[in-house]
Amino acid sequence: MTEVHRKTVLLYEKHGKVATVTLNRPKALNALNTGVLKDLRDALVDAEADADIHVIVLTGAGDRAFCAGADIQELRDKSAIEARDWSLWVQEITSYMERVRKPILAKINGFCLGGGLELAMACDFRIATDKSLFGLPEVNLAIIPGGGGTQRLTRLIGKTKALELLMTGTRIYAEEALRLTLVNTVVPVEALDAAVEAVIKELRTKSAVTLGLLKLAVNNGLEMSLEQALYYEAECFGSALATEDSREGLKAFLDKRKAEFKGK
Ligand code: DAK
């Protein structure tokens, strides 16, 4: 069954085990304003709470952009205090994306710039068309990324290239983004749906609860010392072993049959 919630600036659909969230301002290249970000947060909260949803896909409407960044008009009109409060609120959304206990796939076709790339970097997979363009061009506006861009880009591709992209504001094509391990997969536009489906199909064979634990172990562990992170991994391992699904997975292996997971 497909459930569609139509909102002006964001589309939120559930089909089978997949929730698709579409940034829906194609005329403004899906630029992020407060309305989009509020609806995005609501959609993610709903998808996380819905036990039927296994995977979340985040994408942009139209064929030109995933998202061209924060809405420059809205940014320009903010006072210093409004900008600080907005900043904290936006950072909370991207951090929440990393805590959502379900895989989030960014499906990218076209511009993926500024705040758009910041959203994509908070996702767990980035699957892009070969015509997609990536960058953090904030320096050209005499501002800096404020939605996690300076930190997540550095963690994903390393300091040398991160500083180059941040300081020059250069846009790179998907193939270069792939080389830098900024994205997982690059395909021609006509193969994008199939590439996303292939990842979803693979993830659906896994236990949802295990995927959630893996995501927490990686994302939270990255912020700890190695010693703390290893301890945290052991705690997550303990939680994984306590699930019904792990009992089923281990037993199915010994029974030489395919496991059937329930996400519990
Ligand atoms: N905001 C608002 N409108 C945008 C936009 C944006 N970021 N990007 C494009 N648009 C609008 C254009 O104004 C234009 O609207 P109309 O003139 O038709 O009404 C329409 O989208 C089509 O764009 P163009 O006519 O410019 O199309 P082109 O093909 O010529 O160029 C482009 C495409 C992507 C190269 C160009 O639009 C462009 O350079 N856009 C701006 C890209 C950019 O600089 N992005 C970074 C924005 S700053 C923070 C969190 C996040 C951020 C900051 C703080 N905190 C939590 C504190 C993030 C900041 C940013 O993202």
Mean pLDDT across all amino acids = 95
Strand-and-helix sequence, N→C?
EEEHEEHHEEHEEHHEHEHHHH
Biggest sheet strand line-up: 1-2-3-4-6-8-11
Distance between the termini: 23 Å
- State the total count of DSSP E strands: 11
General shape: globular
Largest sheet: number of strands, sense, barrel closure: 7 strands, mixed
List ligands, each type once: 4-(N,N-dimethylamino)cinnamoyl-COA
Helix percent reads 40-55%
Q: What's the layout of helices and strands?
A:
Elements: E1 2-6, E2 10-15, E3 18-23, H1 34-49, E4 55-60, E5 65-67, H2 72-76, H3 80-99, E6 104-108, E7 111-113, H4 115-121, E8 125-129, E9 133-135, H5 149-157, H6 159-168, E10 172-173, H7 174-179, E11 185-187, H8 192-204, H9 208-221, H10 226-241, H11 244-255
Parallel strand pairs: 3-4, 4-6, 5-7, 6-8, 7-9, 8-11
Antiparallel strand pairs: 1-2, 2-3, 9-10
4-(N,N-dimethylamino)cinnamoyl-COA is lined by residues 28-29, 31, 68-73, 87, 90-91, 111, 113-115, 118, 137-138, 141, 145-147.
In short:
The protein has 264 residues and is of the alpha/beta class. It has helices spanning 34-49, 72-76, 80-99, 115-121, 149-157, 159-168, 174-179, 192-204, 208-221, 226-241, 244-255; strands at residues 2-6, 10-15, 18-23, 55-60, 65-67, 104-108, 111-113, 125-129, 133-135, 172-173, 185-187.
